[in-house]
Amino acid sequence: MNKMTFYQKEINRIKGICHSNDGQIQTVIGMRNYMEDNFDKELNLDLFSHIRFTSKFHLLRLFKKYYGQTPRQYLIDKRITKSKSYLRMGMSVSETCYSIGFESPSSFSTLFKKKTGKTPTDFQKEQFSQSQSKVDS
Amino acid sequence: MKIKVLSIPVQDQEKALKFYTKTLGFIKKVDVPLSEENRWLTVVNKEEQDGTEILLEPSPKHFEPAKTYQKALFDAGIPYTQFNVENVQQEYDRLNNLGVEFSVNPKEMGTVKIAVFNDTCGNKIQIVEML
In whole angstroms, what is the distance from residue B27 CA to residue B42 CA? Predict the structure, then answer.
């Protein structure tokens, strides 16, 4: 019989303390999945809170409590990650912008630069030159 | 400042390279011979080869406190670091089939699912899936 390690005991202890409210956990997981599926649309927490019979502000607090980020921050990260893969695939900047639910290419470019350090155009150029050098080598 | 390299201490670099590439699926990025048999050896993940590199550093072999620390973490079952995966159960099944030993089987912890395995180089490593 294996003795439980310190880590296994800690996991069980933490699970008991922090993760005992299954209703809350299922709610925030549902919320994250909703954002995963609808990142290209306008985030509508009213709709979501209606489905879950909870107030929008309660949902915001719960999400932050369990994921450590606000839903908006989470959605922005998701959209930036997604836009990177679209740009790598060769999609134009404006097409990428609309595909991830942004209205204006200039606000998309500004945000992209803030989050990644380069503009979408520069990012795309860099990706192509990298894949080209792989082909060449 | 940029986060370019993070390190994992390994007891045997060659064995670690094999495990981290062949078993875990990372790709070798930089391999520079240094003194004696030591190398500056880094791996990256396949989908993001310009992302953060992991340095497989031979510290437990050359620096006693590193060895002591590594062993203490290992004995307590504490992961040295963690990697994100799409699906913990699938990755668990895949690695299990390859003979990788797990000390924590797939387990839900609130908004994540985790599992912990032995990297055969002196560390426990945790895999995480966001639920």
Answer: 9
Residues of chain B found within 8 Å of residue A32, distances taken between Cβ atoms: 111, 130-131
User: Residue B81, by phi and psi: left (phi above 0), alpha (psi -120 to 50) or beta?
Assistant: beta
d(CA B7, CA A4): 28
SS3 per residue for chain A: CCCCCHHHHHHHHHHHHHCCCHHHHHHHHHHHHHHHHCCCCCCCHHHHHHHHCCCHHHHHHHHHHHHCCCHHHHHHHHHHHHHHHHHHCCCCHHHHHHHCCCCCHHHHHHHHHHHHCCCHHHHHHHHHHHHHHHHHC
Buried b / exposed e along A78-108 (16+ C-beta atoms within 10 A): bbbebbbebbeeebebeebbeebbbeebeeb
Which residues on B lie below 8 Å from A15 (Cβ)?
109-110
> CB distance from B104 to chain A under 8 Å?
yes
Identify the CA nearest to A88 among candidates B80, B123, B94, B47.
B47
List pLDDT tens digits, range B18-76: 999 999 999 999 999 998 889 999 999 998 888 899 999 999 999 999 999 999 999 99
B1 neighbourhood in chain A, CB within 8 Å: none
| pLDDT averaged per 10 residues, chain A (length 137) | 85 86 89 89 77 82 92 92 92 92 90 92 86 64
How far, rounded to the nearest angstrom, does the alpha carbon of residue A39 sit from its chain's CA centroid?
8
Residue B12: φ, ψ to 5° = -145, 110
Q: What are the start-end ranges of the H helices in chain B?
A: 13-18, 59-62, 64-76, 88-97
